[in-house]
What we know:
Distance between the termini: 29 Å
Number of domains: 1
CATH topology: A middle domain of Talin 1
Strand content: under 5%
Mean pLDDT: 79
CATH superfamily: NCX, central ion-binding region
CATH architecture: Up-down Bundle
Radius of gyration: 19 Å
CATH class: Mainly Alpha
Amino acid sequence: MDHLWLWTQFVIASALIVFAGSRLSRYADILSEKLGLGHVFVGMVFLGWITSLPELVLSLGSTIYVCEPDMAIGNVLGSCLFNLTILVVADIIIVRGLFFTRTHRGSAITGTASLVMLLLAGAGLMLPTVMNIPSPLGIDFFSWLIIAFYVISTLLLYRHDKRTTTPDELDNEEKKYEDTGIPAVAFQSVIATAVSVGAGLYLANLGDVIADTYGIAHSFVGTLFFAVVSSLPELSTTIAAARLGFYDMCLGNIFGSNIFNVMIISVSDIFYRRGSIIAAPDPDSRFYLFCVALFAFVATVAVIMGIRLKSKKLFWRISWVSLVVTACYVLGLFLSRLL
């Protein structure tokens, strides 16, 4: 394939994802106003679910058609780690090192939920080899735990947002979208989502072509490049939300995406008919995937602490949270090259 045409397609598909992501951020704000929901809840459930659709499609494709459980799990855990670096981009470029001073501590609740999900995923990757935990109905025991916790955490966050948002606050809040109807927003959201997912999948296919064209290892492209590509919707929606000043929505989007990403492992496990998808990778791959989950866990802890402590910049536009998250991502890259 001609190199210029290859990278032209890459740029076009990336631009489509960025445009669709910016529209989805606006639609989430409209839904937040119309339904009386907090930005954290909308970020976690609406944006988090929609922007994780590329990861879902890629992981299901890896599970059903390619039958590569390593690729399916690596895609979502790699996306979790990359998603957290998106907050670093927003902190440095948009808010100039002051991102965490402008967030509310309630956002840490969603972060804690994502911590538990990553903990379950990491435990699932390591414990079955030690404890030989049975897999009911061919679905891993930890997959059931992940599904249950996802449902519970979503319900708890909804109740928290409703409890902390009083009717007076809703009445006094500026109504910016009174003339916009929910059906129209829902229809436009479907179109923007379709564009985002379609462009994301096309970019993933281009990643495979790039690997063949430039002689890059397919395992490296699959677990890291695909993860970055499938996270472009999170990048565009988070940056767009940050520009609008919706910092809690940024956190809700990233934490929500990571929660749903881990949930994708369980969904893939349902369709993987050769036993437990979590126990399927070889020991070396399981160890590497566990390390990726561990790096994402540590980076999430740093973000939550930044929210709680109102972390300020250390120098230039760099906060200590950004340093820790970046270090975790670089370590993940280094490990992938060793593998």
